[in-house]
Amino acid sequence: MHLYRQTIILFGLALPVVVAAAVIGVGFAIKNQMTASFDNKQKNYKTYEQGRLSGLEIEAQVTRQRQHLERWNEQIAQETASSVATNLREIIEQLPSKEIQQTAFERPGSTGGFGTVVAQNSSQIRIAFRGTYRTLQRAFLELESRMPRLQLQDLKMDPIANNPALLNVQVTYTVWEN
Question: pTM score > 0.85 for this model?
Answer without folding.
Answer: no
